[in-house]
Amino acid sequence: MFNDIGPLELVTLVVLAVLVFGPEKLPKMIQDVTRTIRKIRDFSESAKQDIRQELGPEFKDFEFEDLNPKTFIRKQLDNDELGLKEIRNGFDLKKEMAEVTDAVHSRESETSAGSSTGSGSGGGSVDMTKKPEKPQSDERPPFDADAT
């Protein structure tokens, strides 16, 4: 329940409790808190049992922790009825990315070689490394009054 509380934080809480409640009332307060926590746990367990009974016998082994998506996926991967381990082992992301990168680089080298040897008007390829040409004249683009 208190997995993320460190020793320094625990000592601080104890000192604060002694200062706030006093050494005389502190044991009674601890008993009251533990009794309340115990009642809440009992109430939650009885609610879980009631839900399991209402769901029927096919959900007898149902755990509410299974509703957590991470737990559900982990349980399904361990079950492996769908053959997901074979798919996961057969798929190498680094290899796939290397193939895609090689294909892109070979296509870039082909287009750059074709555009440098060709006349420049055929092929329909666009060289993305060139900067766009600016218009020769100092004319402004047409003004559209409806667009502004």
From TrEMBL:
Q: Where is the composition biased (Basic and acidic residues)?
A: 99-110, 128-148
Q: Which Pfam families match?
A: TatA_B_E
A biological-process GO annotation: protein transport by the Tat complex
The annotated region (Disordered) lies at 99-148
**UniProt keyword annotations, A-Z:** Cell membrane, Membrane, Protein transport, Translocation, Transmembrane, Transmembrane helix, Transport
What's its membrane topology?
Answer: Single-pass membrane protein
Single GO cellular component annotation?
TAT protein transport complex
- Output the Gene Ontology terms for molecular function: protein transmembrane transporter activity
Q: Tell me the HAMAP family matching this sequence.
A: TatB
Subunit info here reads: The Tat system comprises two distinct complexes: a TatABC complex, containing multiple copies of TatA, TatB and TatC subunits, and a separate TatA complex, containing only TatA subunits. Substrates initially bind to the TatABC complex, which probably triggers association of the separate TatA complex to form the active translocon.
Recorded hits in PANTHER family, A to Z, give: SEC-INDEPENDENT PROTEIN TRANSLOCASE PROTEIN TATA, CHLOROPLASTIC
Protein family membership:
Belongs to the TatB family.
User: What the protein does?
Assistant: Part of the twin-arginine translocation (Tat) system that transports large folded proteins containing a characteristic twin-arginine motif in their signal peptide across membranes. Together with TatC, TatB is part of a receptor directly interacting with Tat signal peptides. TatB may form an oligomeric binding site that transiently accommodates folded Tat precursor proteins before their translocation.
**Protein name in the entry:** Sec-independent protein translocase protein TatB
Which species?
Streptomyces spongiae
